[in-house]
Amino acid sequence: MRLVVVGGVAAGLSAASRARRIDPSAEILVIEKGMRISWGACGLPYLIEGQVSSIEDLVVYRREVFEKERNIRIRTEAEVTAVRHGARELVLANGERVRYDRLVWAAGARPARRASGGRVFSLHTDTDGERLRAFLETQRPRAAAVAGGGYIGLEAATALRARGLRVRLHHDATTLLNREDPWLTQRIVERLEACGVEVRLNEPADPERLDADLVIDATGMRPNAELLAEAGAALGRTGALAVDEYQETSLRGVFAAGDCCEARHIVSGRPVWIPLGTTANKAGRVAGANAAGRRERFPGVAGTSIVRVAGLAVAVTGLSQQQARREGFSPVEAVIEARDRARYFFGRRLAVQLVADRSSGRLLGAAVLGDQGVLARINTAAAALAARMDVETLAGLDLAYAPPYSTVMDPLLVAAQQLLRML
Amino acid sequence: MRLVVVGGVAAGLSAASRARRIDPSAEILVIEKGMRISWGACGLPYLIEGQVSSIEDLVVYRREVFEKERNIRIRTEAEVTAVRHGARELVLANGERVRYDRLVWAAGARPARRASGGRVFSLHTDTDGERLRAFLETQRPRAAAVAGGGYIGLEAATALRARGLRVRLHHDATTLLNREDPWLTQRIVERLEACGVEVRLNEPADPERLDADLVIDATGMRPNAELLAEAGAALGRTGALAVDEYQETSLRGVFAAGDCCEARHIVSGRPVWIPLGTTANKAGRVAGANAAGRRERFPGVAGTSIVRVAGLAVAVTGLSQQQARREGFSPVEAVIEARDRARYFFGRRLAVQLVADRSSGRLLGAAVLGDQGVLARINTAAAALAARMDVETLAGLDLAYAPPYSTVMDPLLVAAQQLLRML
Fold first, then answer.
1. With CB atoms 3.0 to 4.6 Å apart as the test, which of A21, A145, A415, B193 could cross-link to A336 if both were Cys?
2. How many domains would you assign to chain B?
3. Which among A306, A387, A403 has CB closest to B46?
């Protein structure tokens, strides 16, 4: 069995590694367009900020781990230009053909708009990161504009401000982080402004025309789905590749995982396109397992994410109230503020927002803002979503307490109790 | 309706406050044996260590909050000596009788053995804390012995070592923290020894005879259940008061909550006695609601707790493998070590142990050791226990990731994946 994996980062390498573990005899080849494999693009903002000194520090596993320990062939700087599924072959940019029995398409996503170069940057590839870093060091720009208020835009604004630049953030919608949540947006804007970042919401901006020494274009991403679609694979309504719960596309024996494809949202039940490294890793494992003959299911996503915005941890999972309403729920929302641990252990303020469905009492979503204590609350809420837990059960969870780590009535439980009174 | 609550800390005040919210017209009286109400005994180790400068800093709400804002009468230094349930009255130490319609018994627990005074201390009441602190400051002891390897013993050993004393910990069993977990015990012992604490396991010790300038007796607790038992309330097999899911005792109209009573364990389904402030608060709320005429259920406990041992966060939830075996499961266990966040954000080592039932695949318990990242993993596991989640679902949870807070494949998921391979 010859398995070809297109894409050499999170989803692709998870798939290849998992397939190898299941099938020691398969021939496995990973084809990567770029020069590097197994590096974490999530670290790019920290390369810009200076926390990470080199792209090499973002590499998760060395190439040798795959080639020597896992017997996985790796080809870098090899770009696929066509998929001929009838012939079970890929065509590369140099004309070469690569035969496959099974294919895992993990080609990722790309910025919706190609930055022109010069003072305008995307923040997506390793080259983007290195070019931006060199620009910062050699050109010493003083004023930066960031177009886009998704997590990449917010992380970029944070990183540039931390380097001492004047930063202006432009976002075309009224709410940040694709969350349709005015409360969350308000809290993020307050923090950004308190840290000296100017924020302009609801103001479409062409990155190429923004007045600044340096512009980050984080206006949006597109799934790398076209080549497979041309070969006949169905796209979902989001424009990303449609996959079933086994990560199989509409082409038999062709699996997809990561930023190029959709996933089922565990709250709404609908296919969504929320490209994140966590999903890529897990869906990649499932794609790899099934390409190697297993029959495993990917359970779907809750859209759980966390992002550091000017020192504030901002985390979300599930649906906001507005999103829930659009999905046909009758949502209610509670927001509380509390300390994340004992005052005498330097407890920080934590804000917890919970959304539940009025008719069923089921938890639909959560947002948490604060410091290091945010992760515990958002992940507990994410587990509750996966279990389709109601707010009453959530309010009764037996959570851990000691003064250095939490409070006797955990903020998540306080929020759940408040929400319970509104149901 | 006249509601009398016996006990003026976590469970009692939660009950009184909740009853007031539900019934604005009830007469509510709280009777407390000690001088203070609403203080958190969980803070005593930090008073000893010096992180907290006064018992007053451990007070959660001032007395006025209850008396003025909530219209709850408070009597301190009032000790109940008998319960005459036939007459619906309490007898106080001064001979006075106090009538009730409904009673919430939240009398807590006490050290199993009364420390003799002098150089031997319990660490339970506010007076214990103040006396020990004064002893440390005036007598300047150099060598301390701690008897008991439950969480109070471990916290006391940590606090005294942090003050610079030589510390020896004696424990009568082979495993610490009532967990029957050799792996967990081994990790804790290693940490204590690395911090200069001498540990003697499986060595029964009479605190009064230990050779040291200062001895902490943390050898065990007993529920304050006798007076209510004499009035006819049934005790459970653990020796604590038996209650139903509404926190009602076998005496009609008499509810109990907190360290004096049992709770149902959500994994084993059996009544257990695991006295913790978190449980006291939540069960107190339920007792108060039901005493005020509601019909709410307490969902039970998972035994979730976290304790700081010489700088190491040690957290458990559910059952250890040995405990699970005794409860009739066929448990399997996986242990992994991973970083709790990105290396370039100073990620610390985190160890995760998961226990699951081989036949059903259901998660039965977890233990997590590490730094601030421990809370997120143990609470997520606790939520999974409440949902009776299987390991496969756990391994597929959509958890939050950004380099300052976690890793792309969360340590909890890595452990779940490992356990899944063993099922």
1. A415
2. 3
3. A403
